[in-house]
Structure formats: structure tokens, C-alpha cells
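User: Show me an example of a complex going from sequences to C-alpha cells.

Assistant: Sure. Here are the input components:
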Amino acid sequence: MDRIGRASFLALGSGAVVLVADRNRLGPACLAVAAEVAEIDRACSRFREDSELTMVNDAGGRAVAVGGVLFQALEVALRAARLTEGDVDPTVGQAIRVLGYDRDFAAVPATGAPLVRVATVAGWRQVHLDRRRGRVRVPRGVRLDLGATAKALCADRAAVRAHRAAGCGVLVSLGGDLATAGKPPAGGWAVRVADQHDAGPDAQSETVRVHDGALATSSTTARRWSRGDEQLHHLVDPATGRPAPVVWRTVSVAAATCVDANTAATAAIIRGERAAGWLDALGLPARLVRPGGSVLRVGGWPQPEEASAA
Amino acid sequence: MPSDPGAAAQRDAGLRRVSRLTRWLLAWALALTAGFSAIAARGFSGGSGGQSTGQTGGTATTGASGQTSNSDSSDSSDSGSALQAPSNSPSASGGSGSVTSGGS
């Protein structure tokens, strides 16, 4: 008997999906996820005037005392930067604003005047955390964007919290980046992998079973806009301050945590041709999709079953 | 026994030189101790702050002020020095899945 429960709701400017191995425990799990999402949004949103991150970005170079959630999110972001040699860098905030992504994406104009400049990315080493005092300082003019890691951190935290609340296995997906906690249903969680988390039934995709850990996908097909004749997307290469060249249109990675999965997937988009070897060397199961749709699987990512391969 | 005034003066002068030398040596010893302590504190930051040993680009600089550089943090959110694979790789499946992983 299928006892899996499922619920979905809006969260973090995208969609949240909560799966529980015991459908009778869906309510407590959803409440736990909603609470976690609210905490992360209040601390880490760069679009909320009242968020702690906005306070840090607007501090003009002064050290700012922050709460534990944002402090953890910053530590996670800096770890991601260190482990990817700066390919995933939280100091891209000003660069992505200059590109036009300066408000909640739903309100970003789809077209606009040509870009006249790009912003230099200061680099993650410019961010200073004072753990003893719980303070963070970034130089004047540097703006942080935790988009590459905060949603994944939220998924990790929410999965653990929901598992504790529900007392059964859970899967939490936030905008297509998902984390699991507890014992999965028999055979694992069935997860469809596609370019976009809201892909229609006809979109190219394949289905895998996730038994533990997390799975995240980064894609240049999501959150796109144009300025002049230039097509832009949200995955900015810190080396140039511009959207990364589209060597892979989509990369999905399985890892122990959603933070690690999303860090690797985002870095792979930035790294381009070097990504496949890097992921394979790390032993991370990954699926990389070329702009034309051809798929490369590395690190033990399974070959699709005939019925699910598109 | 009557003392020789010249010899006494020489003795006193010698004692003053020894005393000055002792003070200088003491001051140098203290300065060197402080210097080595500072170097050791920077090179081997301890406590729960963790170390960046073996981590690419690590610049552990925890000092007496408690200021922690961006690469000197480790706790539950900084688990390990590499991206971690899941315990079990995903396996192939048919069907459509209950949830979709994709860009957003």
C-alpha cells in the first residue's frame, strides 16, 4: 500500500514540496518546513528590506551583529566558495544586480536596455566572520547573494526538522533542490530530474530513486532575461561578473547534503568543460545536459530505464 | 681589614654593569617569549574554531582579538574539507516520480 503523503506550497519565491513516508504525518512535517522557510527567508533574503542580509549589505563596511541562522548560512557560503576555489562565490550580489536581477525575479523586466557595464566581483575572501561576537563585515560596495547555498541549506534544515516533527522519513524540495531525512519508503524516493522543477510532462527528463542524502539541479534555462540582444541567466561567473557561458544547460548532482549537491551543481555550470572530470573525481553522481540535450552521466549516476528516458 | 677605595669603586662599577646586563637579558627574554607566543597562536589556532589544515586556500588567522577570517570556520555547517557523496547513489527507476528536481 502506498502510504506516501505529499503537499506543495509556495516558498522562497518558488515552490516547496514535502513528501512523508507516512501520510498520516504530513501535517506536522509541513508545519516544520514552513517554519524553517520563514526563518531562512527572514535572515537570508536579499530582496527583503527587513532581512538580516540586507542589513549586512547596507552596512557600508561596518561589522554587523547577526543571528545564528544567517551566520550559519554565511559559513556555508564561504565553505562552498573555498571548496570550489571561488566558482561559487557569495560576493556576486552587486554583479547580479548590475545585470538586472535586482528584485524578486517575478518583478524583473524580461527585456531592457543593453548592458553598459558589469560589476567586478570582490571575492569571498573579503567576507569576515567574527564567530566570538557573532558579527559579519563586508567591504563597502560589496553585496552578498546567498542564492547558491541558502535555499539548499534551508532544504537540509527543513528535512531534519520535519523528520523530527513527523517521526518518519521525509523529503523536502525547495525549488527543485531536495533533501531527505529518516528512513525512505521501500525502494527509495522516486525523483524526476529535468531542466526545471516545474517542467511539464513532455519535457526531457528521467526518473531516479533517491535512498538518502540530497539531490540538486542548477540550470541556465531557469530565471532568464535579456538586456539588449544579450540573453542572461542567474548563474554568474565570479571571474567575469557575467552569466557563465552555457557549456551545460543543466547539471544535477546527488550528494550527502543539499548544500553539497547544489554547490557542486552550480560550480559545474561555472566550470564548463572541466566540470565532468571534477565531479567524477569527487565521486559525486551527476547528470550533465548539453545545450542540445545530450546527457553525460558521471560518478555512478544510473543509466535510465528505457521507460523513463526521454 | 681596610679596603682599597680604588678596588671598591671598580667592584661597584662591575656590579652595576652586571646588573644592567641582567635587566637587558630579562627584557629580551620577555620580548622573545611574547613574539614566539604570538607566532604560535597564529600558526596553531585552537579551540572550537577549527583549523584549515589541508583546505585549499585556507588562511586560518584567528588571533587574540577573536576576529575570525572567512576561511577559519568549522562546525556542523562546515562538515569536512570536501563535498560529500551520498551513502548510496541514486538508482534507476521507471515512472514519473513524486517530485521533480530542476532549476528554479
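The lines above are the inputs; the final block is the predicted structure for all two components together. The longest helix of chain A spans residues 26-44.
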